[in-house]
Design brief:
mainly beta; seven-stranded mixed β-sheet; six-stranded mixed β-sheet; 51 strands
Amino acid sequence: MRLRPGYRQLSAVTAALLLLASFSTLAGAVAPGNQFFQRTWERTDKPVADDMVERTWMWGPEANTEFKLESYVESPGGLRVVQYFDKSRMEITHPDAFDDGLWYVTNGLLVVEMVTGQIQVGDATFLPHVQAEIGVAGDRDDVNGPTYATFSDLMGPVAERGSEVITETVNRAGDVGENPDYNGDGIVTAHWDDITQHNVAQPFWDFMTSTGTVYEGDAFVDAQLFLTPVYATGRPITEPYWAEVKVNGSILSVLMQCFERRCLTYTPDNSAGWQVEAGNVGQHYYEWRYGDESSDSDVNIVGGGGGVGVVSDGEIERPSELVAGQSVMLGAHIENTSDEAVLAEVVTTVECTNLALVTINQQLLSIPANSTVLYQTSWIPPDAEGTCTITITVLVDGMVVDTESWTVTISDDDGGSPTATATGTSTSTSTVTSTATSTGTVTSTATGTSTSTATSTATNTATSTSTVTPTNPDINFQQFGLVVGASIQVPGELAGGATVSIGARIQNNANVSELVHIKTTYDCPARAEVTINQRDMTIPANGSVLYQTNWTPPGLGLLCDVTITVTTERAPVDSDTEDWTVLLTIGVGGTATATATATSTATATATATATSTATASDPNINVQHFGVVVGANINILNEVEAGALLPLGARIQNFSNVAEEVTVTFDYRFRLPLGIVYGNWQSISGGTITIPANSSAVFQRNWLPSGLGTYQVRVTAETVRSPVDSDTESWVMVLVNP
């Protein structure tokens, strides 16, 4: 499915967030995605499906999609489970909340979104779209009936009308008129909503408060159709209007009214049970949000609904069950049919019976033009009774292009339980050197989480040695870091989007071979821990093995901890853990200095430090320091309390033999969910200063950031004269609650 033209461009206001859209074609005869959706569907629609009653569907005969993941800021991991039906969308926003049997499953304010042209991706977070020019009711080829956009100017509050005959009409353009002929129908207003300040027509209020046959507790019973009148429809957002609508090729007079979640219609010519109907809001919204379903994306999971499973000899298999505690390799083949290479983010999540949704892997993949790659990640099924649903979601340019799920039964764990942890001591040292070359001369040193770009290139090299003196454990890390040829190095930074091999040399000091479980994760500020790889290996007696795994770090601009843990299969357990702190850059810096640290425990501890200095020449203008002015210093602050006024400052050096007039600008951009995409750059302030020959000057401006989250802040300095000399430096900070 292809995105709507212009839909990739995101608004970059501080509160803007990335829309992660589930992107599969609508398909018929799909069961509700989980027991909660099934229960919600059955209550009102199973009696209709089983011919127990004659009334409108509230959801539809079946779901139109498998269950999907869509972005929602307040949901765990920023993702929530949804499923689309003809009439609406079911969603579980807070899976860890108490299941009250009613609001645990909600249906979205889809009508509000289509009328206003705003896609809701959080309680108070919206993504601009366009108003939906889709007919609210009637035939799809009707060019005269009202659309959702018709009601955009009709949402304003009105006075309470009491019981008043409805004669108002509306056309496609949103023009409101009056037709006294409708007096004869005698349809009146019956309820006034004091929240949205709109009147509800009698047929709709009667339907919202009606009783009838519902399915509860595995039985058909007579009860309130809706446990609260606004559960299914929401509150009214417009007045009721008569409209001329094309239905089955004929023009009919239809009374319609839009509510937050549904639009209801009343057609006097229909049989009694079907006079009030819920419009196909779910269908309409899916089309509006995701565009033309008939057009495929260039990047897709191969195999459609069967494309996600267990990797075996390069093929995808779907066994009937997996054993809890036994590691498997999950994966999917992902194809790129375009003529250009594509950088895609792949996210794997798992939701199990009685367990909340968790992200088990998130990484970037570079897919060559007209090629297919195998994505895979290891996973250990939990001790969960029932089933687990594994979902792999593929994003390109921050937008979801495909997502597939697989539900599998989890059987009992046959393994044992670790009971002991070994102890030991470890020390590690590391040196990192960075050099950059161009033309002219400039030397710069910085500290903190700083990334910098200039008209130069930079290369980081590092070596790492680690000596472990165990007091007990037979299993120890000898080295851990970036595998480069035959060596293992500890660089201070890694470039986001560039695949690397990380690994460790693991020593077994026992006189017998050891089966060990190895787990590699990374953890960044304000983000959940993500598993990179899990694997079992056998280490020979008094020998060592090299463990390594590929990883494409996301371009976060943050200092993140990469952790590797090794644990013996047998009990008592021997284990060792080592950490490596590394800056995941957004791009390669020209004048950046990186600092790396490593710690190892077994109860062993180790520390490593790394420093990096960049030497560049030409341009004559160079940003020496950039950050927050604190007294006489310019410091990089990684965490700032919201509401704090920040005096941004940059010391800019002029290496030429003449004074230079330099334009300096400060900008920022907000990091979007899942950590790989930022919004557009927004200006903070700027100005022009004159820097004397072979001297430096400080440029300073105040900034009051708003909105919690991660920001990248940058300074750009460039000469007014031509040819232009310029330099840019940036750093990343997290805005937190005071």
